Amino acid sequence: MTTEPIRIAQMMTDMNYGGVEMVVMNYYRNIDKTKVQFDFFALEGSTIPQKEEIESLGGRVFVVPKYTHLILYEKAVIKLFKENKYKIVRECKIFCVNR
After folding, report:
1. What is this structure's pTM?
2. d(C-alpha 13, C-alpha 16), whole Å
């Protein structure tokens, strides 16, 4: 009996060459992809240099509207969550505050 891997929604912000993206990609490169797959949610305007690699490893990349268009963002994310029935969602947001 063949079972599909569990898909984890990786909620990224801007997906470029940053440190968070590199750490998540290192995890992704080294997990057992027959058991776990990552789907990456990136905000519009991201360069997504890892897109080809993600897709070659069996992952998917979804581009969603920026938070500045909150209603559009929510609609897109809810639609994708319903279509893909994620059991696990991982969110990584880094906020900087200047004081």
Report:
1. 0.87
2. 9
